[in-house]
Give the backbone structure.
Amino acid sequence: MKIVLPVILVVGTAGLMVLALVSGGNARGTVGIAGGSAMFTPKGTTPEVALHNLLVDVQRRHWDRAYDALSKTSKADKEDFIQDWTGSNGSLRSFSALEGFDPRPLHITDDQAEMRVALHWSTPVGPIEDVRDIHLVREGDIWRAVWPKYKIPAVPAEVIPVTYLRWDLVTGTADDQWGSKNVDAPRVRIISMNAVNTAEGAIVMGEVVNEDTIPAFVNVNSTLVDGSGNAIDDETSFDKIDHVLLPKQVTPYRIDFPNIDLNKVKNVRIDVKAALVPASADPVIGVMDQKLDTDAQGKAVLQGELLNESGQTVNISHVIASFYDNSGKVVWVSDGYVDRALLPQSSEPFAVEIPKNVSDKVHNFHVVVNQYSLARS
Amino acid sequence: MPRLISICALLCLLGVSPAQDVRAPQNLTAGEEGSVSTTGSGNATFYLFGPGVSDKQDVNLGEDVRLPGSDLQNAGQYFAVLCSGDCRSTSFFVSAARPSSLTFLVHPSRVPVAQNDAVSGVAILFDKFRNLELTAESVDFQLNAGKASLLSRAVPEKDGIAWFRAASGKSAGALQVTASLNDLETLRAVQQVASEPCNLRITGQRNASGILVQTEPVHDCTGNPVPDGTIVTFTATEDGKKSTVDAPIKQDIARAQIAASGPAVISAASGVVMGNELRLGGH
């Protein structure tokens, strides 16, 4: 009897250790803590296990092990493979970490497999989900991923002349006499507003135009008011707006009110605040080949390509799109970040999602691109 | 002020017989010396209450009480109280001195050209002690754009304020706004800027990378060039796909490169103003 309890404890502990090692699964491990996995990694005898092993190594940044686990038929060299996961040129990906993943098989035969994996990234602008299809082949009794070559845009050496157009702010130093130093705030106007109810809560959206001849830093605030005139909640557009508006530029805005039922709202108050801000008219980013489509997961999306028409690298691009019905009313505003840097004169694809119940109503759309360049920060 | 009046009334009620009296001039000017005459004989205590001032001194009845200019810098009503056994009081008014500064507020600092009632200005007169000048002086307002005079008007002030409202001029550039009174003059500048673009027209041609599209020089309806940096949105529709470029105007012209190889319809807009539509065939 004296040894029964210790034996049970030892066996139980060993069982739990084995279980933990084998069924690491889709757990979203703590990123940045290395070690632990070297103890025991099951052989990639199935596509699921092989892909899981690869993604765990990527998550833990064990690049040697991850690259060694790839098929020899892969087109990517080691540097390409690492850059594919870690990003470059100060892109959003280079500030992100793979927090978790959810793989699922699409098609598996005896020696070929197509897997689709939802990658959950933790980024400075919030969690971002990316979906990737990965091809695996069986080599002997081990499954290995075939990694395509990561196409880094080839930028030729060239000189791009720029008529540098920017606005600076000068604070007057003349005297403090009343009325001698005022420069009015930019004149901006809300040109459309719509409020809708969704499963997540109420959403107020629309568009703002800068009617002035100088750049404006804009932010839209909204307050929901109930039948007795009390404020239910107030929120701002936060990052769902292009804050710096050049003269005559139009931006969509969207304000989310989580867990609020629009049926309880009697009135929506909305105001736009504008302030003077130094700004530059460069870089110019074109939004090419915009098209409403369905992505691999069957979701309605607006997709296209961002083309950097300037001579400087845009590190992080943020796409904001407004969607109109056939009467020109804004029925949805959607946004998304591009996790690759936009190199000069090169393009990157983007896609923003549209809810299914809205996609049928969409007749037209307008896309603006908010950009962040490290060189300007 | 009500408290001041109450104190004076209380002090007066304390008196039972008019053994002395106090008289003050009806109007004094801020910052100038004045005097209050007294009657009777013997000693008394003199009190002065006014805006921002309270003073007490021993005086001889029958002599004038000197009021230094430093005690009378603030315009408004003052009370002089003389107590010797009983109290007598009088009040007098100190008005603002001659105007020494002209505060001038002009709105807005930027204004589109050819807008009615778009520029307004308010002039407020103060003396050197920052008292509001309430005398009915006339302020001259002048608006000049370059050498052209848009407005010249003398406006009498009312309750210390004179104001005007005027239309903006037809040319972009600085609008000099002047308010003057005698030797006082205050100058403000309003920037007149181009209004909305007018007749926005685009042209385009194919090149190796697609279509180079550009506007003709962009002007407002009075012929002023629209400021550089104003955004023109070019939209190309090709085979169900749409491409847009927000291009800033540089040297009166906005241009953009659009990647399109097939037949395309291109349009332009700046803010809420639409331009013409351009149809280009494919390669």
Observations:
- The longest helix of chain A spans residues 4-22.
- The interface with chain B takes residues 163, 165, 167, 177-180, 182-184, 191, 209-215, 246-250, 281-282, 284-291, 304, 307, 309, 365-369 of chain A (CB under 8 Å).
- Helices of chain A lie at 4-22, 47-59, 63-68, 78-86, 356-359.
